[in-house]
Design goal:
The protein has 378 residues and is mainly α. Helix content is 66%, strand content 0%. Residues 7-14 and 16-30 have low confidence and may be disordered.
Length: 378
């Protein structure tokens, strides 16, 4: 039986039998190994960014068609011995790229482009291995936060699809009279890479906050700024796709003046290809023109969003929008330099890396507007 309290007992005295409620229990139960998962996602993001850069260099060095087969497992081993190298070289000699562009190439020259493509594919295998070890390790340890298993599994599915799309892209340059991969397939391949790295960046932002904190922050969201950053994400990714078309047909090396293109605003040969629609994918004049025009639109829209962000009462929101504006301006300057110097690989690869940083910065700004962090009224 419980003892009745005495008449002189303090009314606020603690009863040792009372169970005290503790805050944050739900968040802790749902948190899993958030810090470890964020670290794993950061590693994956850095590897995917490196993969994009290596892929760009593979394209700039015309190395992508040097391996003519897709062997996801056995292809991890490079040629071992002179006989194996001769077999690979003979396969490459049968491709249109060798017959029409590289006829007479030496074994030493072939090895250079082979190692670029092999390294690109090998990095893809390593990324898949890092994902698998992390995902299944967290799954076996039951450390994945509630509601996150499907999202993290989806990253692996997209990574596997990216490998298949990569081979679909390469195969387009191995037949007929193609000396490069199809530019639209290159755009799809690069676009999917940006989807993957964008999702990883967004997931890390979400995992950096507690679920209850996100729920409260959502009520303070700055809807107009978030919507504008959503539009800017779409525009930035579309610009990446157009950049892939430019790279796929070497359109960046044909018109090397700015702001005009061979002295014209819109080159007169922009619609010379038949059928008409092919000009938008294969005509270097129109492809580069579209890339430039969308770049101007991205810059103007960014300037407008930055101006609107000045009215935000939150310092962090204003700061991340400052970063977006500065990075977009810098990226445009890199694009102009790429054109003026006929796309040297050093500048071109910086331009490609800049695109990654811009997309992630825009996503971060959207997140800051959707889930504003609390700040003191002062």
């Amino acid at each position: 039986m419980s003892q009745k309290p005495g008449i002189f007992q303090e009314v606020d005295a603690a009863d040792p039998t009372d169970a005290k409620p503790q805050g944050g229990m739900i968040s802790r139960r749902q948190s899993g190994a958030k810090r470890a998962i964020r670290g794993w996602l950061l590693l994956l993001a850095l590897m995917v960014a490196l993969m994009i850069a290596v892929g760009g260099l593979t394209r700039l060095t015309d190395s992508g068609l040097s391996i003519t087969e897709w062997k996801p497992v056995t292809g991890a081993l490079p040629p071992l011995g002179e006989a194996a190298w001769n077999v690979e070289f003979d396969k490459y000699k049968a491709t249109p790229e060798y017959q029409l562009q590289n006829k007479g190439m030496s074994m030493a020259e072939f090895k250079v482009i082979f190692w670029w493509e092999w390294g690109h594919r090998q990095l893809g295998r390593v990324i898949g291995l890092v994902w698998a070890i992390g995902f299944f390790g967290f799954l076996a340890a039951r450390k994945i936060p509630k509601g996150w298993t499907g999202r993290l599994l989806g990253l692996g599915v997209l990574g596997g699809a990216q490998g298949a799309v990569g081979w679909w892209m390469v195969s387009s340059g191995l037949t007929g009279r193609m000396v490069d991969v199809a530019s639209y397939r290159l755009a799809i391949h690069l676009g999917l890479a940006f989807v993957i790295i964008g999702l990883i960046a967004w997931y890390r932002l979400l995992l950096n906050r507690r679920p209850d904190d996100l729920l409260q922050a959502r009520r303070r969201r700055e809807g107009a700024l978030a919507s504008m950053m959503g539009v800017l994400v779409v525009l930035a990714v579309a610009q990446v796709l157009l950049g892939a078309l430019v790279a796929g047909i070497d359109a960046g090396r044909g018109y090397i003046d700015w702001p005009m293109m061979n002295g014209e605003f819109l080159p007169s040969e922009s619609f010379d290809y038949e059928p008409f629609w092919s000009n938008f994918f294969e005509n270097p004049a129109l492809v580069q023109f579209n890339h430039r025009m969308l770049g101007y639109l991205v810059l103007l829209f960014t300037a407008y969003a930055w101006w609107r962000s000045r009215s935000s009462a939150l310092r962090k929101t204003r700061r991340v929008f400052n970063w977006v504006a500065g990075l977009v301006v810098f990226q445009m300057l890199l694009g102009i330099l790429t054109v003026l110097y006929a796309a040297p690989w050093q500048v071109a690869i910086l331009h490609q890396i800049g695109a990654i940083i811009v997309v992630i910065a825009v996503l971060r700004a959207r997140f800051a507007a959707l889930y504003p962090a609390a700040q003191s009224l002062r």
